[in-house]
């Protein structure tokens, strides 16, 4: 099988730390170009814009968009119009409604649009989904608290409109939640704390439910110093299940049952290659819809101004 010739668009933190190693380890994908206004790859030709790559660059079959969400849909449209498969980093876009037109274009052209949710590839996620399918779930608590200065240093786009603020990491928790629960969930209450000088929330408290009345409580906070927390605690009729470390670990009734190191991105590239071989799309918007609904329903309060 010939390798998928791929360009990364947006050569920042996630592209360099996760995508480049995953592509290098893949027998089926070859990185042939990079697009970024400033950052450069020492290994492949660099282009300042996607237009420039499509005009003057090497032949490519696909792009991975690792740009901030605000510029993704225009880039996806451009790439699909040029007949390329498209992998989207999470979140798939800055709005929910911008995605359906992309899916329509991709399907008409039999090209792949893959909206990735890397946290769903964490090792505890599938085991948790299987266990929960056999249990009665009584309540869920999500605590997702991290230090934005450590994990997103200087990324001003994250606090700009469409940047998601603390929902940028929080949507990872929602991607796990919507994968492991047996029924769809919806937002019932939200309170979003916006720094006085920013356009996206830095702290969120949210409640959700499902059709059976299951209570799901969520705390997202970007101001956490010291120990960082990416936990989902689920009370069930057979004890408490805890996913910690963003889905890297799971304990069941206090007994550790998953504690594995597993890179998430090689799985995404394996799935992408499989989708491109059939020209199929994989786009699940459930986590993005929850974030949008929190903005629709949420009470807004102003909190202390934030500088990196
Ligand atoms: P980042 O470090 O800011 O990287 C984004 C890159 O895209 C920057 O180099 C930026 O250049 C470039 N860029 C901006 N506009 C562009 C355009 N029009 N064309 C080409 N390149 C452009 O951000 P990141 O942390 O990698 O995050 C990117 C996406 O990945 C986000 O959606 C995020 O949620 C997701 N993600 C991040 C992480 C993480 O831990 N960081 C984990 C998983 C997923 P400038 O800096 O010059 O603007």
Task: Give the helices and strands, then pairings.
Layout: E1 4-9, H1 13-25, E2 29-35, E3 46-47, H2 50-56, E4 62-65, H3 72-81, E5 85-88, H4 99-109, E6 113-115, H5 125-133, E7 137-145, H6 148-151, H7 167-180, E8 185-195, E9 203-210, E10 215-221, E11 229-236, E12 239-244, E13 249-252, E14 255-259, H8 265-278, H9 286-297, E15 299-303
Parallel strand pairs: 1-2, 1-4, 2-3, 4-5, 5-6, 7-10, 8-15
Antiparallel strand pairs: 7-11, 8-9, 9-10, 11-12, 12-13, 13-14
Helix pairs in contact: 3-4, 7-9
Bound molecules: NADP nicotinamide-adenine-dinucleotide phosphate (NAP).
Quick overview of this protein structure:
The protein has 308 residues and is α/β, with parallel strands linked by helices. The chain contains nine helices and 15 strands. The strands form two sheets. The chain has a nine-stranded mixed β-sheet.
Low-confidence stretches: none
Report, as a whole number of angstroms, the end-to-end distance. 46 Å
> What is the name of the CATH superfamily of the largest domain?
Dihydrodipicolinate Reductase, domain 2
Hetero groups in this structure are: NADP nicotinamide-adenine-dinucleotide phosphate
Structural domain count: 2
| Largest sheet: spatial strand order | 14-13-12-11-7-10-9-8-15
CATH class of the largest domain: Alpha Beta
Mean pLDDT: 97
Beta fraction of the residues?
25-35%
Please state the structural category. alpha/beta
Helix/strand order: EHEEHEHEHEHEHHEEEEEEEHHE
Largest sheet: 9 strands, mixed
What portion of residues is helical?
Answer: 25-40%
What general form does the structure show?
Answer: globular
Instruction: Work out the radius of gyration.
Output: 19 Å
